Amino acid sequence: MNDETWTPHVTVAAVIERDGRFLLVEEHTSAGLRLNQPAGHLEAGETLYDAVVRETLEESAYAFSPEALVGMYMTHFGKPGESGTTYLRFTYCGSVAAQAENRALDPDIVRTLWMSADELRAASERHRTPLVMQCVDDYLAGKRVPLDFVQTHAVGPAVGPKAGQQTGSKR
Questions:
Q1: Cα angle at 74 between 113 and 149, to 5 degrees?
Q2: What whole-number distance in Å separates Cα of residue 104 and Cα of residue 126?
Q3: 147: which DSSP letter?
Q4: Alpha-helix runs per DSSP H in 14-166
Q5: Are 25 and 108 in contact (CB under 8 A)?
Q6: Spatial distance between the Cα atoms of 159 and 72, rounded to a whole number of angstroms
Q7: 68 burial level (CB within 10 Å; 0-12, 13-18, 19+)
Q8: What are residue 6's phi and psi, to 5 degrees?
Q9: CB burial class (10 A; 0-12, 13-18, 19+) of residue 114?
Q10: Where in the chain are the domains?
């Protein structure tokens, strides 16, 4: 067994449809320019909801209002027997207000664009991952989970019974 600690990477993504077209970002990646939904990593202390709102704003300059969870996806990159890298992606759908003018996008984002599902499907070689199309297809299939499906609980220091207080029932 190796001493390396395995830790999955948690990401969020936004599927946003307007007039039959989907909001996408074109971004620089190690594999060149790729298409993706506005997406990114969960940061310490954030809820998934807050993360997808933040990432959408940072990558597209649109204020996102999540309405439902489309799905949770797990992708593992690595060779069998190696820890590799695992991503857990929480994809939300919702709506956006007007795009903020003069707001700088994240440095790796080249531009935002709106594409139909057919246009997106025809550009599959440019998708950042196969999840780009799968999330749109799941959205189009009507997959939705209420936002309250995802629960966030803040956990503080361990709280135990006060000195002299009984724990458990008397018989």
A1: 85
A2: 23
A3: G
A4: 48-60, 117-122, 131-140
A5: no
A6: 32
A7: middle
A8: -85, 125
A9: middle
A10: 9-147
For the chain, state the CA radius of gyration: 20
Instruction: Write down the CATH superfamily of domain 9-147.
Output: Nucleoside Triphosphate Pyrophosphohydrolase (3.90.79.10)
d(CA 137, CA 121): 10
What token pair was written down for 11?
A: 């990401």
List the chain pLDDT tens, one digit each, 171 residues. Answer: 455 677 889 999 999 999 999 999 999 999 999 999 999 999 999 999 999 999 999 999 999 999 999 999 998 888 777 778 889 999 999 999 989 988 999 999 999 999 999 999 999 999 999 999 999 999 999 999 999 999 888 766 655 444 444 434 333
